[in-house]
Specification:
heterodimer, A: 300 residues, mainly alpha, MetI-like fold, 12 helices, 0% strand, flat, B: 527 residues, alpha+beta, Dipeptide-binding Protein, domain 3, five-stranded mixed beta sheet, four-stranded mixed beta sheet, 20 strands, disordered N terminus
Chain lengths: 300, 527
Amino acid sequence: MSVTDTTPPVAATAGKPLPKPVSPSRQVWQMFRQNHSAMIGLFILFAIIVISIFGPSLYTVSPRDMVWMPLTPPGQSEYLLGTDYLGRDLLAGLINGGRVTITIGFSAAVLTILIGVTIGALAGFFGGRVDNVLMRVTEFFQVLPNLLFAMVVVMLFSPSLINIAIAIGIVSWTSTARLTRAEFLKIREMDYVKAERSIGAGNARLIWKVILPNAAPPLIVVAALSIGSAILFEAGLSFLGLSDPNAMSWGRMIGDNRPYILDSSWGVTFPGIAIFLTVLAISLVGDGLNDAINPKLRQR
Amino acid sequence: MLDTLLKSLPVALAATLGAASLAQAEPKAGGTLTAFTSGYRTLNAAVQSGAATGAPASQIFAGLVTVGADYAIEPYLAESWEVSEDQLTVTFDLVDGATFHDGEPITGEDVKFSMEVVKANHPFGQNMFGHVTSIETPEADKVVLHLDQPVPGLLMSLQPLLMPVLPKHIYDDGQDMKTHPRNMENVIGSGPFMVEENDPTQRLTLVKYDDFFIEGRPYLDKIVYPLIKDPLTRVLMLEKGEIDYAPFAGVRPNDATRLEKADGVNVTTDGYGAIGYVHYLELNLREKPFSDHAVREALAHAIDTNFLSMVIFGGRTQPGTGPLHTGNPFYSADVPMYEPDMEKAAALLDEAGYPVGDDGARFSFVLDVPSWAPAAHVPMAEYIQAQLAKLNIAVELRKAPDFGTWVKRIASWDYNATMNGSFNYPDPTIGVHRHFDCENIKNVIWSNTQGYCNEDMDKLLDAAAVETDMDARKALYADIQKIAQEDLVFIYMPQDFSATVYSDRIGNAPASPFGALAPFTDVYLEE
């Protein structure tokens, strides 16, 4: 799972007398900070988000305007990264596309987590027949070919941003559901859960207030990583021509420029690099979080 | 190919060259030709126009005549015909011994039945055969057409693409022709090739019909049409020589430059003159804002067809000036044009009552983009979206996932605007009148779906349809083109970059004005 081969050293404060109690989130941050690749990832991600938010108001070329001869290679005009088949500025496209790409990735991930955690939590908590039914449903979605199913959904309901995010969410929640269920199965037998139940806590309280917070660490990691895979998924759909024609995303730039790839490799390369960097950064951060949050790794 | 070569060389040189190439290029029987298809819904060209159906259908079904070089009408299923002095009766003699692919003889009854089917079901059946009042079959191999007025384009309409001869014994069972199961399953035709395998999700395979009525034809054993939807895959396959013959190749101008450099691959834009493929922005004229002429005028000022053809299509296409293709004998360049002028466009919209609203837009509309010509329509639509954004008109693009979805929307008039394109066909009565005729406002794709009706236009169309004097007819079409531009029925885009990509192996590549939509009876493979 981890891309780092050095285990972060234990916090140096351990040996000193009367150590100040450290809050869990602070502890996680300390662990995370010592993970260099995770910090690099966080930095790249931060830069991409800042550019996506403030870039369009600083670099004011519209991504829709035809500004130069079509298919101009990078460096041969005032437009740094060259132009696409309509003569639109690729740099402007990249800067504006980030917002849409990250928004799709984020909303699809939220949906993935929402569906996955709900189903997994109910299945794990109640067990028995509920578990059986919900897990059969999960298996049904698991055996459907992801990409094909998402394509069908997008084609049926037209390729708008919302539909694309929904399609990605619908096909990728199954592993989250399985993970959540496993955590719930384990935690619901813990003494503190039994204790809580014995003093009269209802099911809802047990699920949301008692078990879920304790099952959260692995879920947070999964949530972070699923943003990355949602971005890749969106790029995959766009590559197949299923992108919102009214919103500029990196995936759509790749899809649109693909027919011209033989004459203008830059048209697909730059958005490809942007996607690569973003997904890489998210993976690094996700792995860093995993190392920092996982109590087993922390004790080492 | 040979034809054009001959024309461009001095006569003496041509004679020797011609003799030499004839000597070495004796047509050879046999071989499999690989073409391609981008997907089709039916193999029956009597109920569906367009190249996707037309290219294979012209091989499966025969017509009464074919069209040779320079629009000459040549005998095919009809070995001869006679036109009466008043031009109101045409008598056809059919070839003896012609049979359908199931062995049943082809008779005058089949021809009569086919013409009635085309008249009732083809998008421009009415335009082609509306003046045929009755059809008689005095003998099994004779067909007599009676007309209520002279129809100059009649013979041109009798070739297989537009009037395929269908087996009456199979189709005349009371079922709706448009959805008849035999249009796709177990298709029985009358042409040089018969269907061996028809799997629209994979490929269409045609094999030679051994009892074809022309002795020793066709030369080819087989034609295979693999389904290749992706234009990039197509270009790569063409470059590697995996496709022998790709009419309507759907390649982009920059791909053509690339393919011309490939070994053994030729690119030609010949053979599309008769088809006359024009593109346009179609606006639904029934509703505001497009029912308002000033709005259409503003759009015409904002959309620069010259810029599109010169810059976006690299100067390889002609800008569109009206309903007729520049290759059409009736083309006229003397039409009102709307020079690119964004300020004027904005002023027109202001005056017409479409000021910029509180939401920052004058109005918004959905622009449909069909799936069948992405190389042309996607850049055009994106250009229109960008240009109109400058005028504060919000354009939402809606890409159709497949042909059927788009056809359904447009044919039911349930749209604001769509990118569209259509064929002129050699006679404007066939391919042009259908879009402008008040009587042709139908729920049929590529009819007058936009809902245009102008009495003056109708009168001109009616007059041009029966005018037999060429110059007088030209004058009528010049006026028709003028009114089309004045009324801005459509906003014309650059003409299509229609190209055929073919390999050196192909002999007698179809070179008539119908190009790839003519029957491949004489085509052969070298080696």
